[in-house]
Amino acid sequence: MSINPTPLSSNFFSLASKSNLFSNLQNTISSFPLKPTVISLKPSNFPIQTRCVHSNSSRSSSSGEIHVIVGPMFAGKTTTLLHRVQAEISDGRSIAIIKSNKDNRYGLDSVVTHDGVKLPCCALSNLSSFRQKFGHDAYDKLDVIGIDEAQFFEDLYDFCREVADRDGKTVIVAGLDGDYLRRSFGSVLDIIPLADSVTKLSARCEICGKRAFFTLRKTEETQTELIGGADVYMPVCRQHYVSGQVAVEAAKMVLESQKVQCGSFV
Ligand SMILES: [Zn+2]
């Protein structure tokens, strides 16, 4: 497969392999080093099985799907998204990947995982502009749309609903479910009622190595959207999230009291 990042429509690609999607996805999940916690909205407790209710022949008509991958930073959300996208490509389906143009740490024309896997993508400020920028004809031929860093898209709900319900496409969404204060981040949780499956991934606690479900901000900045990597954030377990927040708050109070003291001498 050759990958050419420009122009936008070149991000539309398709392979004719006849490999089995179900086994590909199972392999993807089983080969993933961090075991995902799976919450299924259907009676089955394995989200991939929800695909079995759709036949391949009906996909191009009206059987859209929405799959959501959430978790803290460093949990492998982008890696999981790309593995699923690669499985779709292997199954002969046409895909496109969208990410936010707010996060330019790895360049705007590709999605890169922490372990270096790279696929071309469209970097946008909002999802509603995708169809026009990608091209209407190219859009109509798409089977699957992957969305990375979904917490940055305010129009996530409407986009996913229209793409899956109206246009019959599969949407695979990866994003942070919570911010550094464990509050709902953007619209990611809003699309869960729309979803076929939800997968919550965990990372490894940077302090004790246990499963980490939360992202601790190590610095004192307080805005919700602060783009950064391991220099700013670390994945932590519940115990170390709580103790880490206490430490960050204590450090902040010390810094603020120093500012007051400095001010009083002026
Ligand atoms: Zn820990």
Spans of at least 5 consecutive residues with low confidence: 1-60
User: What is the CATH homologous superfamily assignment of the largest domain?
Assistant: P-loop containing nucleotide triphosphate hydrolases
Distance between the termini: 65 Å
Oligomeric composition of the shown chains: single chain
How much of the residues is beta strand, in percent? 15-25%
CATH topology of the largest domain: Rossmann fold
How many β-strand runs?
A: 13
CATH architecture term of the largest domain: 3-Layer(aba) Sandwich
Tally of distinct domains: 2
Query: Which sheet architecture does the biggest sheet show?
Result: 7 strands, mixed
Which radius of gyration do the C-alpha atoms yield?
Answer: 20 Å
Molecules bound to protein: zinc ion
Please name the defining characteristics of this protein.
266 residues, alpha/beta, Rossmann fold, Wheat Germ Agglutinin (Isolectin 2), domain 1, two-stranded antiparallel ribbon, 7 helices, binds zinc ion, zinc, ATP binding, nucleotide-binding, Thymidine_kinase_CS
